[in-house]
Fold Phosphoribosylformylglycinamidine synthase subunit PurS.
Amino acid sequence: MPKPEILDPQGKAVQGALPRLGFTGVTDVRQGKRFEIELEGEVTDAVLAEVEKMAETLLSNPVIENYTVSVEQ
Amino acid sequence: MPKPEILDPQGKAVQGALPRLGFTGVTDVRQGKRFEIELEGEVTDAVLAEVEKMAETLLSNPVIENYTVSVEQ
C-alpha cells in the first residue's frame, strides 16, 4: 500500500466517485497492490523470511510503499 | 484478484524474475489490487453489504476479477 504520507491519486479518484454512485460514509480510500504467492512445501520461518525479502526487494517500492506479509493455508 | 482462468502477465513476470534474483520454491504468483476503505461509524451488516456492492460495481471488473471483503478494526 502507498505510505500514509504519499499522495494516492487512484484512491482519491475512487473516493470522489463513490458519492456520485450513491455510496456515502466513506472517509478514505487507498489503493495498492496485492500479490498471492504459492510456495512449495511448508511455510517455515526461513521461508517466511525469504518472502519478506521478496516483498521488500522485488514486489514493493520501499520509498513510497509499505507491505505486509500474511500466510493463508 | 484476476480469476484463475484469466492470464495474469504481471504475475507471470514476477514469477519469472524471482529465480533470477535467487528466490526459489515459488510455484505461482498472481497480482491484483487491494483497496483500504475507511468508513464512518460502526460496520453493521448493512454497511458491509454496501461495501460488497461497491467492490462489485466500482472497484472490481467482475468479468475478469474476483474480490473478497474483510473487516479490520
